[in-house]
Amino acid sequence: MSEARDIALVDELRALPEETSWVEFKNNNTDPDVIGKRCSALSNSARIEGRDCAYVLWGINDSSHDIVGTDFNPDAKKANGQVLQLWLANCLQPSIAFSFRVVNHPQGRVVLLEIPAATGTPVAFNSISFIRIGSATPKLTDFPERYQQLIERMQPYRWEQLIARQYATGDDVLALLDYSQYFRLTKQPLPDNRAGIFDRLEADRLIVRDVGERWNITNLGAILFATRLSDFEASLARKGVRFVAYGGNNRAAAVTYRHDGQKGYAAGFEGLVGYLNDLLPKNEHIGAALREAHPLFPELAIRELVANALIHQDMTVTGAGPQIELFNDRIEITNPGRSLVKLDRMIDLPPRSRNEALASLMRRMGMCEEQGSGLDKVFTAVEVFQLPPPLLRADENSMQVVLYAPRSFAEMTQDERVRACYFHAVLKFLSGDKMKNASLCARLGIDPKNAAQATGVINKALNAGLIRIADPDHPRAGYVPHWA
């Protein structure tokens, strides 16, 4: 934390007309119990007021807000034989990440206590939650309407709202973020002045106001529109998309291409998808007069699966980001974090995203399909191309989708045939229809004269419990997914 910012913060807080429910000024009152109660009360009140932090400042007159200086030394202060900060951490539930900072202001020594606003649960001191009302610090439970207001305003943890770059100048913001791409992708005219640019970026929470006429760039702003992700902390820079192409069917093969994404997801998305499509193998077909090259994988599927990997990753997993690996016979797209939806229900159930603001803005910019329709279109495109069914797999720390190059029915494994049958039944059900032997023949490229092959696949899917007969009294009516 820079001293210049702390000085600007002190001056901004002093400029308030009076103490608020989230700011308190003190001369030298350093009673530990008073500080503990204030931490609880100010943290809870800050959340009600929509503030990210609350503050206590020592060395400032609470009437005039003049700096009078203080000899309070939080590092030397003891409480019940313990260092004050350790004692406070043990007495506050949950243990919030407060911080004491000495500010050497030009007008005198100030001690600043920064207290994060309550998030998941009200902050309590010695098991009692307090609230700030005027200059009083009563128990939160004595004011049920404020307790209810606090519960309603507490938001779950959102990685997108955290700060990627603090106390940035306007010039820094314009250099660090590709703001022209933001206006182009959101289809807004580029304002002819800086204030208009900052107003729009702030409206979408890409930046938030800091003190001293500076700005904070949020994680959302950086991950979407960074000119260079490497300009930010390593933990964020590592979330750039990594692409590796191999000259064979496994990772032991020689690497033929490697690309580590440097731009934010939105700023670099079109370039990334174009780069992938240029590298993907193509099949040649003889048209009416000319040879025509068609991509081996549906472009829509690639685009949607890459966007899904960006949107649904767990941003809190450190040292990892989305990865795309291209082999001769498949493409694997991996993102950090286990899926929040069961793998066999990812087509029909609405998606659950850890990053709602990121997902919403990417959809607004047309980088992926409307909510809940993207994977439907991926699996539909796979059927149109008569590819083997995608493989969805997850472990404790990652989610992966594998898209396979074309293979005939004879070349597919038994598991792939059964998986294709299940997903075909799902797509039919979602369109208001039922899977039948004839439709599965078309899906798998089976000659209708060999319909018994499709019947064998259906029987295996029935035995695996993946599908069921739609109407037991009329077996010819078709099949639906097991959950339908």
From TrEMBL:
Alphabetized InterPro entries for the sequence: RecG_C_sf, Schlafen_AlbA_2_dom, Schlafen_AlbA_2_dom_sf
Tell me the ranges covered by the Schlafen AlbA-2 domain, including all copies.
Answer: 19-139
- Please give the superkingdom of this protein's source: Bacteria
Pfam families, alphabetized: HATPase_c_4, SLFN_AlbA_2
Protein name (database record): Putative transcriptional regulator
**Which species?**
Candidatus Propionivibrio aalborgensis
